[in-house]
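C-alpha cells incoming
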C-alpha cells in the first residue's frame, strides 16, 4: 500500500530528546503500537526526522532540524519505488526499505504522542497541520503543498 504523511511543526524544546528513537524520541503522528507507522523526531547527532514502522524499519532525514523554526515534512511510502522524506519542499532522503508497509492494527492514530514501547515522549513543540493520504504524493504535489502555505510559517 502506498501512502503519504504530511505535517507542519515547530520544535520548541529539545532537552528530552536523545539518541535512542524508542525512549528519547517524540511522535509527530503515528499509530500507538509496535505494528504502526509514524513520523517522529529524536536526536542522534542533532535533531532528525524518523519515518518508520515502529520497531521494524525506518528512514532518517539527513537534514538537522533546529528548535524554534517551522518545518514542512512529507514522508512517502510508494510501493515499488524508493520511500522518500521531504523537508520544506525539497527531497531530503530516499530508501528502498521494504518494511515501511502499513500493518493491520486496531490501535488509534495519535498526533503528538504515542503510548507504546516505542516513541515515549510528547512532541516538544507545536504541530499545526497533519495530513494523511492514501497515495504516494509526487515531487510536484509536495512542492505545491509547501509553496501554498510557507508564508503562513515565515518561510
Amino acid at each position: 500500500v502506498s501512502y503519504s504523511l504530511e505535517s507542519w511543526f515547530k520544535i520548541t524544546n529539545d532537552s528530552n530528546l536523545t539518541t535512542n528513537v524508542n525512549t528519547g524520541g517524540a511522535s509527530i503522528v503515528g499509530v500507538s503500537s509496535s505494528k504502526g507507522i509514524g513520523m517522529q523526531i529524536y536526536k542522534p547527532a542533532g535533531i532528525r526526522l524518523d519515518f518508520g514502522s515502529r520497531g521494524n524499519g525506518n528512514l532518517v532525514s539527513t537534514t538537522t532540524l533546529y528548535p524554534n523554526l517551522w518545518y514542512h515534512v512529507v514522508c512517502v511510502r510508494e510501493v515499488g519505488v524508493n520511500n522518500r522524506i521531504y523537508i520544506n519542499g525539497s527531497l531530503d532522503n530516499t530508501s528502498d526499505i521494504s518494511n515501511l508497509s502499513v500493518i493491520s492494527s486496531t490501535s488509534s492514530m495519535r498526533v503528538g504522542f504515542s503510548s507504546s514501547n516505542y516513541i515515549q515522549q510528547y512532541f516538544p513543540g507545536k504541530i499545526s497541520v497533519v495530513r494523511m493520504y492514501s497515495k504516494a504524493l509526487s515531487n510536484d504535489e509536495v512542492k505545491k503543498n509547501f509553496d501554498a502555505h510557507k508564508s503562513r510559517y515565515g518561510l
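note: DSSP finds two helices and ten strands in the chain.
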